[in-house]
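re: ur question from earlier - yeah i can do the single chain one, its not a big deal. heres the input i used so u can compare w yours
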Amino acid sequence: MARPCVRQMRLHAHREEPERKTNPASAGVALCLCLAAVACTSRQERARDALNQMQVAYDADTFVARAGDGDLRAVSHFLAAGMKADTASREGRTALVAAARTGQLEVARVLVQQGASLETRDGKFGATPLVWAALSGNTRLVGMLLTRGAKVDARAEKSGMSALMVAASRGHRDAVALLVARGAPLDDTDKEGRTALTWAARQGHRDLAQLLLARGADANLALLDAASRGRANLVKF
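and the output i got, formated as tokens:
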């Protein structure tokens, strides 16, 4: 009676285990990931070697400084070597802020393409890249930041000045016209109660004052500011 069981056991003992089949798709994905990691490492190493050959230190302060200098080649190498676009210097200034401050359009464009924040603020004045771009007077840079989504009404935390106020105070007519066209609030005030029109009048930029008035700026605010300084008779638009 036990023989059938013995025979079945022998058959099972001689039966070969099925071979484990490898999924070609999974193997291909793993290989691609491995190759991508190697390629990424190699690219970063080449970028760092390039910086070494340029005698440029690979650190945050140098990265930010080169952005401010408009050194597109060095900035590109920093990014390729693994530096994050929003890396800040010890002073709390990012590369995009540094580039905007000095009107470096191409460097700023690359940084934005690599994910640099449009609303990051510097550590000293609390101003966004757009406010700094307005200070530089580079209208194309101002336009690029606005097109990418920078907030047109953002203000510097320390002074309360907006990009429009800064541009008006410096006499940057084209930047003022662009900011107004993109919806910059005309009658916002800084922490001292001054508007863009007030700043234009204070600095003697009569053409800008006329432009702002033509766009609907409130003249009374500028007159009040002048009166408070005993100079109301000097405010003529």
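Residues 57-117 form a domain with the Serine Threonine Protein Phosphatase 5, Tetratricopeptide repeat fold (CATH 1.25.40.20). not sure if urs matches, ping me
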